[in-house]
Amino acid sequence: MQSFYLTDPGRVRSHNEDSVTILKNANNEYLMIVADGMGGHRKGEVASSICLSHLGKRFSSISSLGTKVDAVNWLNDNVNEVNRQILKYAEENVDSVGMGTTVVIAIYTSEYLIFANIGDSSGFVLKNHKLHKVTKDHTLVNLLVEAGDLTEEEAKYHPKKNVLMKALGASEKCELDIFDVVDDKYDGILLCSDGLTNMLTNEQIEKVLNDDELSIEGKISKLIRKCNARGGTDNISVAYLALKS
After folding, report:
1. Angle at CA 75, nearest 5°, toward 239 and 97?
2. Contact predicate 30/107, CB 8 Å
3. In what side-by-side order are the strands of the sheet with 177-181?
4. How far apart are the first and last CA of the chain?
């Protein structure tokens, strides 16, 4: 089992507001996080850092997350605490109004795999060389697609495709979407910010992840290089856990 993560500012943004990590505890449980901050004046960077720091510290302070139900409760409790911390920071710093962050999380143990997200950072599994998206984006266009008002193809090029309907720091109520992956025949777990998925198709990402000539570090670095070669219009963050080498 191998893991690697990387973040890059891209070619357009002046700084990087994304935060990304992969952590493993004493019980060989993995916590993967990608947070894509927003708010300008580096405040998105603060929001995503608050998210990563809190979740990382809480995860590192326990020996095990316990059962799947325990892990879901842990996620809900701690993400709600992150939301409160971001709101508190914005309240105490007048230049931080509007700061927030998306987050996508994966917890992998010998017993279960669960994803959680708020916003439009994405979680996938790689199975039989094909990439399958697990999470659902909390965007305006995704709501329109689900309602039948837009096709998937129309959504890709819609001028409001990046308008978020949910994010940490956006309101006092914070509700995670939780996804339980019951099939255990997957080969890898991928988390990323929309800086990757807006630049590359699933097929392009698959091709890189399935390249046996590349190390895991080489695969993630190549994905980021490809995004930048296509314009790099946003910060790019990728976290990958390869379950089969």
Report:
1. 80
2. yes
3. 18-24, 30-38, 100-108, 113-118, 177-181
4. 6
